[in-house]
Every structure is written in C-alpha cells, then in structure tokens.
Amino acid sequence: MSPDRNGRPIGTDISATVQTRLAANEFSGTLIRGRLEILSSDFYNSFADDASVAEALAGVEAAITSLGRKTWFLEAQEALLRGNDDVIDARIVQPDKEIVNRIKLNSDENGAIREAAGIEVGIVVQNLNLVSAANTALTENMISLTPRSPPVQGVFGIMGYQA
Questions:
Q1: What is the CA 29 to chain-centroid distance, rounded?
Q2: Cβ pair 31, 14 in contact under 8 A
Q3: What's CA 7's distance to the chain center, in Å?
Q4: Rounded CA separation 122/113 (Å)
Q5: Helix (H) or strand (E) holding 11
Q6: Partner of 163 at 20 to 30 A CA spacing, among 21, 90, 96, 138?
Q7: DSSP assigned state of 8
Q8: CB atoms within 10 A of CB 33
C-alpha cells in the first residue's frame, strides 16, 4: 500500500490471474479506499492474525473519526443554511410590510380625496342655493316694483286677470 501525505495507506496493490477458455491473463492494479476507507475482510487476510485485526480496527477507527469530522462540517453547513434562510425570510417580509404601508398610505390619500370632493360638492350646492334665493328675491322685487294695471271687467277680472 502506498501512503498519502499523512502516512495513511490510500490503496492496496493487488494482482489477479483470470483464466479464460483461450488463455490466462494476469491483471494488477491498486485498490483505492473510498468513502469510509474500509476494505472488505479479504484485504485484511480474512482476520487470520492479530496484525490483520489491528489493521482492520485502525481502519474502522479512522472511518469513525472521518465520519465525525464530516458530520461536524454538515452540521455547520446546516446552521449556515438556516441562518441564510432566516435572512431570506426577513428580506421577503420587509417588502411585504412596505407594500402594506404603501397600500395604507394610498387608501388614506384616497379617503382624503373623497372627503375633499364631498366638501367641494357641498359648497357648490350651497352656492346654488344662495344664487337661487338671490334670483327669487330679485324676481319678487321686480314684481313688487312693477305698476299694477287695473283689473279687467267681467269674468276675466273675477279670475284675477289684469289689463
């Protein structure tokens, strides 16, 4: 096995002979440990001696340590994601509050415009009443100042017609 920069074995050199109907072929290569870096029992001499068992236990302990580091990293990433989620939620809620405030402001402005329009209509109606009253007074003055003609004789005079 060749060690990595920390001195841990990263692979196991293996060789095998494969017999086919035509010929026997020899293959060799390096088995690389992955994920938890634990190999099957075949690569620990099937636990035939104490050294093989000790090497397998060291591999299991290294896998547990590696898993603990990876778990810590994942928990830190989860906390970071939760914090980012809270920030995103806050940024979503802030515009919602701003929209509600704008709608309320627009509603208040519309209410003020409606109230001002109502007051304006009231003033216009009052002015019309004043103009109407002035016209009535003018008409009454004109009639009172007009000289009356003598009443008509006969049936029309009885009915109130004047000449």
A1: 54
A2: yes
A3: 50
A4: 14
A5: strand 11-19
A6: 138
A7: -
A8: 19
As a whole number of angstroms, the distance between CA 106 and CA 72 comes to 51
Q: How far apart are CA 23 and CA 5, in angstroms?
A: 40
Identify the CA nearest to 19 among candidates 31, 30, 11, 27.
27
- For residue 59, count other CB atoms closer than 10 A to its CB: 19
Amino acid at 41: S
- CA–CA dist 72, 68 (Å, integer): 6
Backbone dihedral region for residue 116 (phi beyond 0: left; psi -120 to 50: alpha; all else: beta): alpha
Helix or strand (DSSP H, E) at 102:
helix 50-145
Amino acid at 49: D
Q: Is the dihedral of CA 129, 134, 140, 143 positive or negative?
A: negative
Could you tell me how far CA 97 lies from the centroid of its own chain?
12
- The CB density around residue 79, as the number of other CB atoms within 10 Å, is 10
Q: Is the pTM of this model over 0.70?
A: no
Distance CA(68)–CA(74), nearest Å, equals 10
Model confidence pLDDT, tens digit, residues 116-144: 998 999 999 999 999 999 889 888 888 88
